[in-house]
Amino acid sequence: MKFRISILGAAMAALTALTPTSWAAPYKTSFGPTTVDISTGHAGHSSIPKKMGYWAADNVEVDVFGAAGAVAGLQMVASGKMDFITVTAEALMLAQAQGMPVKAVYVHARSPISKLVVLKNGGIKSVKELKGKVVGMPVLEASSAYFGGLFNDNGLKFDKDVKLIATGTGAPAALALQRNDIAAWASWDTAVASLENKGQEFTEFRPAFFDDLVGNVIVTRNEMIEKHPEVVIGVARGIAKAVHFGLANPDAAVKIHWEVYPQTKPQNADPAAAMSEAKTIFVSRFASYKLPAGMLYGAARPEQWNTMARLMRESGAPLPASYDPKQAYTDKFIAEINKFDRTAIEGQAKGWKESQ
Question: Are 199 and 271 in the same domain?
Answer without folding.
Answer: no
